[in-house]
């Protein structure tokens, strides 16, 4: 791919094919080889694709090879690195931090005219919750705010160590020299109504840094995807295109609301009930009602682990669920049993009729079949 290209998830960044192992060719494959030559050779696609949910512009391509004298890991002949970047606007959910461990996420973004403003009309850029100071007791952020406010007014920059820097008296003196209140608090006005707030608020200049935890990288959703080979549960994490973990505490929440059917669905057909999830998918496609769930695979894993401890666990109670083949076999068997019962009851009636006619002194007739008798007679 070239530098400057706009790309989105699923686009090929580096094309690469890997030959498959030499295998015996079938007649069809031999014919294809004869027609197309070596192009029809068994190869698999092992290209580098842009990851799911990513997009941007290619800004740099670096190629490393042993021929050029680059140091590469054992067995690697050539390595290609493609750098993809995109320009983002700050948004709700992005993480930011000061220089005193005072990190947090953005909860709301409003137009500049709705932000509180000072008496001279200067709007505030960012509002931080005062609860962040009480819980952490990192007062350095307050001292930085006060000193930054004074330094901006006086037109100079400050460089001070974190824990062994300016004293409180020095900051007070600088605020006083800048013509600001000694406590660093000023009256603010509501951006929407224009009325002043009741209490003075700490205002100043401080560093705010962008952290690499952005909501756009974290958002993730999936319908169907890869499952774990052992437990048959969906994999975890965005990188594996996994599902959302529904843990112990989330189960308690649904139990508290009494949402039994939702909980059963999440723990079976949306997770590791292999038969149930395929039948549920089939029922949704056909527009039918989803049938009762089966035993989840994680239960079978537990039983297998208990067998490893020499404990034989058997599942008792309830009617066992039959496979489609077993259901058909049972149906055929049931029909045969029913036919046998009808034949048996017919011969019994025949014998009974003969006995009754002999008792009454009537001549028994040759019976060729059964006649329907009214029960009242």
Automatic annotation (TrEMBL):
It is an enzyme of class 2 (transferase). This is DNA-directed RNA polymerase. Gene3D superfamilies: 2.40.50.150, DNA-directed RNA polymerase, subunit 2, domain 6, RNA polymerase alpha subunit dimerisation domain. Keywords: DNA-directed RNA polymerase, Nucleotidyltransferase, Transcription, Transferase. Residues 1-240 form the DNA-directed RNA polymerase subunit 2 hybrid-binding domain. PANTHER family: DNA-DIRECTED RNA POLYMERASE I SUBUNIT 2. Residues 242-315 form the RNA polymerase Rpb2 domain. The keyword Cytoplasm does not apply. Pfam families: RNA_pol_Rpb2_6, RNA_pol_Rpb2_7. Its EC number is 2.7.7.6. It comes from Candidatus Falkowbacteria bacterium CG_4_10_14_0_8_um_filter_41_36. It catalyses: RNA(n) + a ribonucleoside 5'-triphosphate = RNA(n+1) + diphosphate. GO terms for biological process: DNA-templated transcription. PROSITE patterns: RNA_POL_BETA. GO terms for cellular component: DNA-directed RNA polymerase complex. The lineage of its organism: Bacteria, Candidatus Falkowiibacteriota. GO terms for molecular function: DNA binding; DNA-directed RNA polymerase activity; ribonucleoside binding.
